[in-house]
Write a structure and sequence with these properties.
Shape: globular
Number of helices: 15
CATH topology: MetI-like fold
Length: 323
């Protein structure tokens, strides 16, 4: 009995010491905490507090109520039903799914391939030059990139048209940005060109962590470069690839906004360019249907969360899940 009572008396000091140790660790890391908490605060302010506006998707919200959300009548799922029954629903969903899939199929493996190619370059100056050239487009705004694309594809001295005419592929300049059959190709190509270099940084860092002795052993065994990539490099960086694939699948319905809005500035392209994000912008701000636009945005967010959860569940079996 005396031993048990002594153990019971010793429990509270253990808990207190644990709390003290946690607090002391925070105090010792005050400089690191100063760097972390501003980021957490910004995410909370700009990502979590605006979720309060989700309630407007279940109301008939009007800006004439003084901006107060709770002063508007509840309508349930009225706006969701309106979106599902809207004439544009099929076109918007088709464009969103196909553009997102094209960006994923082409844009996701592109930086991995670039990182694998750069890893095999032994000329340091050429490697750095290629990295710089491929990184720079990421830091350009979509306004500038869209201007580049328009200049290249212009019917008046556009480089693409001049090159095709010189090669004899076309007789007269083609207005590519006014032809729906070319829009998806132009959009995906422009996205890949803009982001391929910057997205390859993570994969280059993962490749740099591969043990060089593995390559030496494979080289001694007579393995070619392609076999070394297939048997050593890709399996080693697969956890990083899996994590980024999960995140990409979670954003599968985010087909884009700025790129489509700037490249598809011709009404002729709307049947192939109108996606959920541009539709929300056009209907919500253009037609001032705020509750309807909020409902469409909430629908997209719920689908994305479902896709993210499904992708993480599948990846968990290989041991590379996010949670």
């Amino acid at each position: 009995m005396s031993v048990t009572s002594a153990e019971n008396k010793a429990l509270p000091p253990q808990r207190n010491s644990h709390k003290k140790s946690f607090a002391s660790r925070l105090l010792k890391q005050w400089d690191i905490q100063l760097m972390v908490w501003p980021g957490i605060l910004l995410v909370f302010i700009f990502s979590y507090l605006p979720m309060y506006g989700i309630f407007t998707s279940f109301m008939d919200y009007s800006i004439f109520t003084g901006g107060r959300i709770w002063g508007n009548p509840w309508v349930g799922f009225k706006h969701f039903e309106m979106f599902f029954n809207a004439p544009e629903f099929g076109t918007v969903m088709r464009n969103t799914i196909f553009i997102s899939l094209l960006k994923f199929i082409v844009g996701f493996p592109a930086p991995i391939i670039l990182a694998l190619m750069l890893n095999e370059v032994r000329h340091l100056f050429f490697k750095r030059m290629v990295q710089t050239v491929t990184y720079l487009p990421h830091f350009l705004s979509w306004v500038i990139v869209a201007g580049f694309a328009s200049a290249l594809l212009s019917t008046e001295n556009g480089s693409i048209n001049l090159l095709l005419q010189k090669a004899g592929a076309i007789d007269e300049p083609v207005n590519f940005l006014s032809m729906p059959e070319y829009f998806w190709s132009i959009l995906v190509t422009t996205n890949v060109w803009k982001e391929i270099g910057f997205n390859s940084i993570v994969f280059l860092a993962a490749i740099a962590g591969v043990d060089p002795h593995l390559y030496e052993a494979a080289d001694i065994d007579g393995a070619s470069k392609f076999k070394q990539i297939r048997m050593i490099t890709l399996p080693t960086i697969m956890p990083v690839v899996a994590i980024f694939m999960i995140l990409a699948i979670g954003n599968l319905l985010s087909a884009g906004f700025e790129d489509i809005l700037l490249l598809a500035n011709n009404p002729v392209l709307r049947p192939v360019s109108d996606v959920i994000d541009t539709y929300v912008y056009r209907v919500g701000l253009g037609n001032q249907r705020y509750s309807y636009a909020a409902a469409v945005g909430l629908f997209k967010a719920v689908i994305n969360i479902g896709l993210l959860t499904l992708a993480n569940f599948i990846a968990r079996r290989s041991g590379n899940s996010l949670w």
